[in-house]
Amino acid sequence: MEADREWMYEGRIVNGMFSNKWGDKVDEFVAFALRHPECVNGGTAIRCPCTLVKCQNKKFLNVETVKVHLYKNGFVPDYYIWIYHGEKEVHQRCSSSVRVSVSETYQTVSDNMNHTTYHRMVCDAAGPEFNPDEEPNAEARNFYDMIRAGDKPVYEGNSKHTQLSAAVRMLEIKCRHRCSQAWFDDMSNFIQELLPPDNLMPLDFYSTKKLVRGLGLPVQVIHCCVNNCMIYWGDDSDLNSCKKCGHARYKQTVRGSGNRLYIRKLKVPYKKMHYFPITPRLQRLYASTATANEMRWHSEHHMEDGKMCHPSDAPAWKHFDGCFPDFSSEVRNVRLGLFADGFQPFGQSGQQYSLWPVVVTPYNLPPDLCMKEEFMFLTVLVPGPTNPKGKIDVFLQPLIAELKSLWGVGVQTYDISKRQNFQMRAALMWTINDFPAYSMMSGWSTAGMLACPHCMEDSDAFRLIKSGKQSWFDNHRKFLPINHPYRRNTKDFIKNRKVTKQFPGVRSGDEILQDLNNRGLRKVIDVDAEVVNAAISKTCGWNKRSIFWDLPYWREHLLRHNLDVMHIEKNVFDNIFNTVFNIPGKTKDTYKSRDELNKYCRRPQFAQNLVTSKYPDVPFVLNKSQKKDVLEWVKKLRFPDGYASNLGRCVDANKLKMFGMKSHDCHVFMQRLLPIALREFLPNRIWEPLTEISLFFKQLTSSSLTDEELRNLDEQIPVILCNLEKIFPPSFFDSMEHLPVHLAYEARIAGPVHYRWMYPPERYLRKIKHKIMNKAQVEGSISIGYIMDEAAKFASFYFKEGDPTLPLKEKRNEVYLDDIVDDDMFEIFKPPGKAIGAEGKRYLADNEYTAAHLYILMNCPEVQPFIDVFVTEKRKQFPNLNDEVVNVVTEQEFPSWFEKYVHNQRYGTWTR
């Protein structure tokens, strides 16, 4: 190796001139460095290896400047192995010519150090190249400070906490409880008063942050055009004005007027975004013993009874493995999901401001860790105050570039669980968004009559005459079997219309990409994109070419963007509930709807009475007394703690409606309460389809699914929607009532719904919103809070050995069995919880006492052997009894039989 690179120090100048041959070798060196993105900063900058003191592989410069420095100053001495420019076989050069691999060095460090849990935390954060025995450089000094802090007790005689452990625990508490910096400083001062004078407890938040700064991960601040046209990044990083709209990059340097003029010392951009590189965050998953093993779970588990319980069990995952066997052969390669959603940081009544975080999450993890907050990584913070809409691709450029690098080249990563380096690669599986954001990510418009991204141009939606709204009425018979009688029905759907065509199926990635290329759609980052795409979008549903098509594997995915079941279920429920309860302003059964009803359908019984000018009542609307009964029932409902919110607070008894229901409230009502609430008040022909759509969502959102179950759902949902079309008017069926027809297909392709809906992302956005401490600098406040939270989260992995989740506070009604000292107590009386509030006492009625007695006997494990004896005796007496009759007889006769039996057998005092 050294002989091959002697040119670095020979032949630079020949006859007083720079050598062309030497210059060609420098070009080869630069090309080699650029082929390793993990060693490139900003796409064009590499470490300069010249002899200048400020360079010497410490400073990043653009490649042209590096060439000039090398021509002028030459290479730093003894740099035969290009470890700072992507040399894969990293070696450590020693004076004795002995070369020690990084993994061996790290193993030696791990074996020789007097490890505590927090020592291991520092080494995991620093990575395999960190060696405490070497002389520290400026970059590594943070880790040495933490190592020393990990050896010092907080005060003399304290064996429980060191300076480091106390600092990270305090930081974790601050982040978990969202405490302010002032609270942290005051609490630190109070702790100082409790400890001996010579203690090492950090004095305030600043000193704590300084001590644990090595646990943090990088963030990049990138300037943006104020109109969201471009970002000053990559080749455009040196521009001073927008190349599209011409707006200046920086605010004016001279401010004031007259004699009060002053000049800014620093250039202040009009707008900036924050980018959190995903690579070091994924590497940290393999750096910690708490998570490294879990990252291989997806390949080590096996399906049971053909049930899909994880995306790795689904056809989309397996299809991707088949398309790219070189990627799937390394089980530690990472599969990612991406979601983006906007929120208003100032509340509904504050300043109009739209902030869009973009978050990625790994799917390698097992079900109990996957999609949890601890493993959601904020990557892009799209700045406000305006909604980026279709221009969100502008802000995704750094992420897409990093994903391309992680796919094509990967990055060398140390797996602490196997004590070895490997080349980690990553692939984005799909995006998760609500329906408006679906359009922003995919480029397919989700408004208008072509809103369905699966039907695309095959949609049969139409515009209603009176209301002018789009309707997806009678758009589902094409999904039925070709010989289904509904296809020939000319009465209950659009009158005089038979349906013979079939749904052609979902388009493949190749077909979609070819369509985009044929139409000539542009990416929004192209200079002429706005004009070209606006003209093309008038003739089709596409409004741009999504930046995700830049990923070389994107076309091979069976599913690229997910329909969000959470929002679809909520909208379906809202339409049903508001129409059945006839909520003014929200019901779909309006005067315009009735007026146009018989223009599309044959339902003369609901037409306007020409004499009274009134419309007759419809059977799917409840009357006033029925509404009161339902709402009173809902108000008295009680759920297990944590199962659902208090729905009684949503009841408005005066206006006979429910208000303020969150998505999860609608989820519980739709799947658990709707069939019960309407059972006694609606005719069977109306109640049954409503119950069927309720059961459809209940089965669809199960935690485990089989292919057969999903195929049945896929066959049932068109029939269910057709039955609803026979009941409700055309105005009832907007795009949200159509989308359920595609949900079973997506679940069959991509796996269980709860890995692909917006409940976890929505909860995570709430957590991000709580990080805003300075409302004048929203994005910067979130960025600082996230970095601190990330360091605290990483440190929390080491609070309890092997526990990869943050410590959780006990729930208000939680009781542990260890707290129960009576070992003779029956299992049924060892509850997992305790009552909330003051206890009350009352006498049970005879029927209540009998029911309670029976419940205890039938659910007590200690009594089960006696139940078996009873059932055996009954089957001997009556051999022809079936299981159903045996259960009835057991409930009726077992309590009295049990009392006599135990007295006769004299089994002990506990059975008396």
Written overview of the protein:
- With 912 residues, this protein is of the alpha+beta class.
- Helices cover 38% and strands 9% of the residues.
- The strands form 9 sheets. It has a 7-stranded mixed β-sheet, sandwiched between helices.
- Strand 21 and strand 22 (657-658) form a beta hairpin.
- Helix 21 (663-678) packs antiparallel against helix 22 (684-700).
- The longest helix is centred in the last third of the chain and has 23 residues, at 883-905.
- Mean pLDDT is 84; it is low at 89-115, 133-140, 800-808 and 907-912.
Shape: globular
Please give the share of residues in helix. 25-40%
Distance between the termini: 88 Å
Stretches where pLDDT is under 50 for at least 5 consecutive residues are 89-115, 133-140, 800-808, 907-912
> From the structure provided, what is the oligomeric state, counting identical versus distinct chains?
single chain
Tell me the major beta sheet.
Answer: 7 strands, mixed
Which secondary-structure class do the elements indicate?
alpha+beta
Q: What share of residues are in beta strands?
A: 5-15%
Rg over alpha carbons: 34 Å
Number of helices: 30
Query: What average pLDDT do the residues reach?
Result: 84
Strand element count: 23
User: Strand order of the main beta sheet, please?
Assistant: 7-10-14-13-12-17-20
